[in-house]
Structure formats: structure tokens, C-alpha cells
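Blackboard transcription, Thursday session:
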Amino acid sequence: MDAMDNCTDSKDRILDKAEALFAEKGFHAVTVREITQAAHCNLAAVNYHFGNKQNLYLEVFRTRWMPRARRVQACFKDVLSTQDGRSLAGIVHALAEAFLKGPLTDDERLCHSQLMIREMAKPGLATDMLVDEVIKPFFGDLVVLLGPYLPENGERERVMLDIVSIFAMVIYFNFARVPVTRVTGQEYDEVFKERLVEHIVRFCLKGLDMDKKEGA
Amino acid sequence: MDAMDNCTDSKDRILDKAEALFAEKGFHAVTVREITQAAHCNLAAVNYHFGNKQNLYLEVFRTRWMPRARRVQACFKDVLSTQDGRSLAGIVHALAEAFLKGPLTDDERLCHSQLMIREMAKPGLATDMLVDEVIKPFFGDLVVLLGPYLPENGERERVMLDIVSIFAMVIYFNFARVPVTRVTGQEYDEVFKERLVEHIVRFCLKGLDMDKKEGA
DNA sequence: GTTTGTATAAAACAAATGTTTTAATGTCAA
DNA sequence: TTGACATTAAAACATTTGTTTTATACAAAC
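(Written on the board underneath:)
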């Protein structure tokens, strides 16, 4: 093993193609042969590098999905710190900005969402990792961030539902591209995505309806 | 073939179990043997009654999913006609009522949602049927219903996004039970579901922000 | 130069899986 | 009863699929 391979390491190529295929079709619908052919390497390479198919799936999350999730969160905090600080509108805008535009390319975002959605719809091999290391901590951050806008002390559940609702919007528009396109006739081009961000921010900001302290 | 079988027709039993398993695990993750064992019938029964596995999947949608979707829509129109008519609040409330409580049992609703979500996440065998015969028509109905509340004539896209957003909320809270439960600590019991309906109605009603003609 | 360890390739294996075949069973009509 | 038809049961079949084995090429270490 050295540098100057054909292109990149075959291990990396397998991870790349495996992620794309798992995202598109789901774990069971993808075969090891399909992956290795797409990665232009031998069938045995998967078992050589990763032991078995399940482990490859987990490695995809460890080495691809998790770092990307962290990048998105970092972007969120970045936007948050550079703009008008901690206003409610600023927080919601930063969320939409990070998750719908953010540091990811469009392909990356689609792939990323689909992988997550599959794990959320039915608990799978990577669900624990995903929930414990990404979703829960980030959710906790948001609770703290939105704390000042709480109506009262006893309304903790209300805030949880509000936060989840923002994610509902963000996630749904990423995962339901097909029906949205077929029903509205709108393609997911740049201009439509821009409109989407605008819409989500407006809808959620109104929906939150937290007119206690600082407003927009 | 006659009545007085062991319990019900084996064809029906296969459809029942197949639907539950397809909903839970997805098409590829379920085997024909798994289905026939759950349905207490012979392996060949699937191919005898339905030709092949794909056709069974389609039959599940034709004979199970579609009728249920129609029942939910009928319930929506029912609620709509019996309550305060055509106010915006009434429409949103009827939507939430029909889709989150409505005529389905909790198990049915979960099963129903999961099947739909899988088809929406990745276009599959039943996507055309689902979109053309259920989603599109119902979407059209809603556009008409919400027409009077349009801000202007040129804002058709805005209304589409608003409608889709309501579905985003309703669908998301059905499909993301696992992460919602694990993040908030809330089980999906009756009291929590009641709170959910309340929340969705409030959030969407505010989010729609259509203060043109009659208000709530 | 030999050895060692790593990566790739080709072939083989064993289990799983969708499908088909063939036989058996039961029901209803003639 | 007989014959046609529908349903169920058991076994076999042909692929597919995840995994393992064996062999080969190649670079670095001794």
C-alpha cells in the first residue's frame, strides 16, 4: 500500500459508493457486488477492508455521515455568531441556512438526509450512534438557545415540540423531493431551494409564536 | 374455496401480514418465507395467489392502502362539513383530526404512514398509484379549499408550500416516532398524541398566516 | 535476495431466496 | 359418482448473495 494508486484508495472508493447506494436504496436492497462494481474493485475487497457488509454500513456512518453532520452543526453555530446574535429570527434563520444550504453540496445533502431518514423510520445498525452522538446533543443545544424565549417554566414540552417541528419542516422537504416535485411541478433547482428556505423560515417563525422577549 | 375456513382466507392473511412486514422493514428486507410463515400458509401460496412478490406488494397497496387512504379523506370531508364550515382554522383542524386521529387505529396509522414514507423517500413500485390517485387529487382539493384565503393571484406557489408544510408536520410526527421518543422521552400514548394534534394545529395555523378574509 | 506484510484478483462455498413443479385435498356441478 | 376446478402442501430448482479461500503482485524491511 502506497500513494499513487489508480485514483484513490479502494477502501475510500468503496465507502463513497457504498454510501451513495445505501442512501439511495437502503441496506438490504444493495448487494456487495453492486458496491464493488461501482467502486471498480474486487468483490472480496469489502470483506477484506471491513469484515462484512454490516460493518461497512457502520463505517459509512462513522467516516462519512458523522463528520458531515458535524460540519453542518459547525456551520449553524458559525452563522449564529456572525449575524444578529441570539434573536429568535436569527436562530431559525441560521437553522434553515445551515441545513438547507450550508456547507454541503446538493448531492451530499440528499445523500445525507436519506441515510438519516432510513435510520429514523426504522431503527437500524447506526441509530444509536446517530441519536446519541448527533441528534440528542444538538437538540440539547437548541433547548438552551431557545430557553430565553420560553413562555413559562412548565412549558418545556411545548418547546420540545416546537424544535422538533422545525426539523420536521427541514427534513421533510429534503426527503419528500419526489412527491413535492410531482405535485407542485417544481424542480429542486437553486431558485426553488432559495424559495424553500425563505418559506420555512417564515412558516416556522410564525408557528413558533414566541412573543415574549426580543422579537424579530 | 368457500366460507368457514380456519379463520379467514389465506389470501387475506397473506395480504395482512405482508402489509405489516413491508411497512416495518421495507420490500427487500422481507422474504416470502417470512410472510407465509406469519400468515400460517404454504410458501407457494404467494406465487399462487399473486404471481410473484412484486405483485403481492402492489396488491397490498390496491386492496389495503388505497381504501384506507380514502377512509381518511372521507373523514376529513366529514369533519369539515359538520363543524364550523370553511374557516381556515376549521380546515387545518379537520386535517389534523383526520390524519392524526381519524378513522384509523394507532397500529393502522403507523403501518399506513410507513408504507407511504418508503414510497416517497424512494420511488418504488406503487409510487405512481399513490401519487396519481391519492396525493395529487387530495392536494387539488386543498388548493380549492384554501383558495379563498390566498393573498393574491400570483402567489400560487406560496399556497402550495403552505399545504405541503402541513403535511410535512403530520407525516413527520408519524414517521419519526423513534427519534422523537428518544429525544423528548415522550411515549406515543394517547395523551401525548392529543397534545401533538393540538400543537400541529396551532403551529400550522400561525405558520399559514393567512389573514385575508375570515380568520379563526 | 530473501522475507514479510499488504492489497488485489479469481474462484469456490454455503446459505438464503424467489419461483416452479408436482402431488394431494376438498368443493361444487353435472 | 365423476369430472372439473380451486386451494393447499411438499419438494425441487435456479439464482442471488454474503462470505471465505487460495493465489498473485508488489512494496518495504532485514
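Lecturer's comment: The CA atoms of residues 181 and 187 of chain A lie 6 Å apart.
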